[in-house]
Give the backbone structure.
Amino acid sequence: MITSKDIIFDTDPRIRMRCEPVAIPLSKEDKQTVLDLHEYIINSQNPEFIEKDGGRSGVGLAAPQIGITKRMIAIHLQDIDGKLYSYKLINPKIISHSVEQTFIPEGEGCLSVNYEVEGIVPRAKRIRVKAFDENGEPIELKLQGYPAIVIQHEVDHLNGILFYDHINKENPFHIPKGAKPLQKNSSI
């Protein structure tokens, strides 16, 4: 079982490494890793677990965040309509994205960045992702809004990119032309 002590921070060079593809069918070890990533994310949303573990709540976790440089991510979140997005993705690849951009007005956070970084993180509003599930079965997702942002954040980890790399260095609160803030009170 993963705990917050297993999560590495942005000072660890492994967080900047481009991850290797995972062989399909999955080895027992790789399957267990993605199951553990998913379990941790679900547990992290339980206040009792967080209090005991000493960590922080999250909605996504990538294998490199626990020092494993393989292309595996897990997410667990609900959109504003209560729809659950809970996936274990192997070798996820964003195969298309909208030109239209969005961003979280409050900014993004990360379990591997243990300090606040302010600024606008522009993301594609809609994406299409191909991956394999934990059983090696192909999966294709069409996502928009918050779930799309979360997947983009986690896929970035697989390429050694952190959310703050997307923030405009000269003007952290610069909103790219046409980018619209993610609306919490509207359906996504």
Notes: The chain is about 20% helix and 25% strand. The longest strand covers residues 84-97. Strands lie at 60-62, 72-78, 84-97, 101-103, 123-124, 126-132, 138-144, 180-181.
